[in-house]
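Practice set, problem 2.
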Amino acid sequence: MAHKDDPVTVVVAWFAENKRELPWRDPKVTAWGILVSEFMLQQTQVDRVTPKWLAWMELWPTPDALSRAPLGDVLRAWQGLGYPRRAMRLHATAQRIVSEFGGTVPSTQAELLSLPGVGHYTAAAIAAFAFHQPTVVLDTNIRRVIARAWSAQALPSAHVTKSEESFAAQLVPGRDGAQWSAAVMELGALICTARNPQCSQCPIQASCAWLASGQPDNAPVRRKQPTFAGSDRQARGVLLRTVSEAHLASESAIEAVWADALQREKAMTSLINDGLVIRVNQGYCLPDS
């Protein structure tokens, strides 16, 4: 039995008193609702996801409902969350769940990994939060807390290592694996943030190796992220939003929203190649529109 001062026990107790009331945390939410939240939360802030998730679950409360929806409607509903290929993969996942799993979200990690757009993190998170399995969930927040509290490292490395995964597995309590994952994730999101962590408010400050070491600036060197403004990714987002809002966007409408002709053509070609936009005689439209 874990001691009451054990950091894992302390974090779980802190979570019980301080967790945010997020809609997908409601005990009545289905495994499908949790799967949808995991797709939406990838690289997207909780505040942006919450209203989208609520609207999405009203429209498509089951895999079967989403599987029958036109892809164009799915892409329009996704607007504002970024990375629209995730919407395509979620749509394809719903169809796979219906065709191969009888409309029920599978519970094993192996089965979850067979779904489009479900990688190791997402499979582990769904298994933990939907089916209460003691899987090793390692998102950015969890990795940062573990790196600081146990390894005295300001930030984790860019990619998960085998040793990191092995150590994290030792922290997962068998009966409360899902609760621990949710708790340490919340601690990283609210207290142990990447910038300006609130160490004085941290429930495990007394045992934190990084704090005891004087909060050294010893984070591994990472490649600098490219600027979003003016990027190909921004061009793709602007053009896709224009097509989505117009239902049928003319060449002149596309030219009006992005001035750089070469970048505009490159972005539009990539959207077409990804199956997000279809070129028609009159201009451009979304699939199934």
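Problem 2, part (b): a different protein.
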Amino acid sequence: MAYRVRPCRSHEELAQAWGAIGHYFGWVPKPEEVERFTKLLPAERTHAAFDGKELVAGAGAFTFDLTIPGPVAVPCAGVTVVGTLPTHRRRGLLTRMMRAQLDDVRERGEPIAALFASEETIYGRYGYGLASLRQEMRLPRGRAALRAGTPPRSGSVRLVDNDEALRAFPRLYERVRRTTPGFLSRSRDWWELRRLRDDPERRSPGAGPLNYALFELGGRPAGYTLYRIAQQEEGGHWQRRLRVIEALGLSFPATREVWRFLLEIDQVDEILAWLLPTDHPLMHMVARPDSLALRTETGLWVRLVDLGAALSARGYAGDGRVTFELQDSFCSWNTGTWTLADGVAKRSRRRPDVRLDATALGATYLGGFSFAQLARAGLVEESRRGGLARADALFRTDRAPWCPEIF
């Protein structure tokens, strides 16, 4: 059977393409959802696979800027809504869609693609490397005190409405984004339709409305948080959980005060947070770190589509030089020997310091993992003495990458 893969051409095709992954989550895109979603993901950025006239698989890509070490922002394809109907699994359709999508990403001049993987075993074969980790927190409210010696409260927090949140939060987010590797750009439509939108039909059972809280220091916005309070009957008792959707501050004092506000909200039994970076200061802010019950999960996966452009765009910890021998079976244009010197990557005939594949290089790109770590896992080979140390000295960063939103 001959299958075809091409970009979607209509809202009807988009609904069917997104419905391929929706099938597994009980989601059938409604016409009004498709209309809204196309403001974020236009038809031409969703590829679909056809079996004759039947649309059986889809894969989309948002248009983002991704902050990378430097810090600097670069164009990035945010891969999303990837799925194949269960009737057409194991027929190579995902590989064909990934082929078409990455070719399109390259033609658009986006040197990087990134995604969150709902199935971690899939994307390594297409050159995506696990580039960051995320942590989940479950803190009993009764153990949510800040550590002894914490400075007294400063500034103030106000609950605001959607309109004020739309005016203030994007500006704060943008200032944090410019300095934090792993952060993604957000358009006004993204804020309105995805981050600040509170659709009662999409709430989980028992979840209350989305709350918007603005922290001000000296009368100026300095941080914010989005949260919900959910209640559920368990064993004859009502349990209330505070679900932190997002919490950001322009500085450590602002971050501390935003979290002080969240940790001191009354009438809740547990405080939950997702998508925290592995080096979030919360671990050192609370009196009982073990009570955070942190759980580590996979975060952002990164794929270098144009290796030369991606490496040359990144900032480095020094002016040294390292030579890579790279294997890239899916994007063969990247395969070969590359020397990175003075922040610029060029093809080279030098003897390589390190041998690796595209997946391993993607894992090190944001600074979330070192070459030495991957070498201990058998994913990187040191081909010249001191090669791993030279590579790590260049790629070293002073903070863990953090993507605060799954897309």
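Answer key, part (b): The chain has eleven helices and 19 strands. The longest helix spans residues 162-177.
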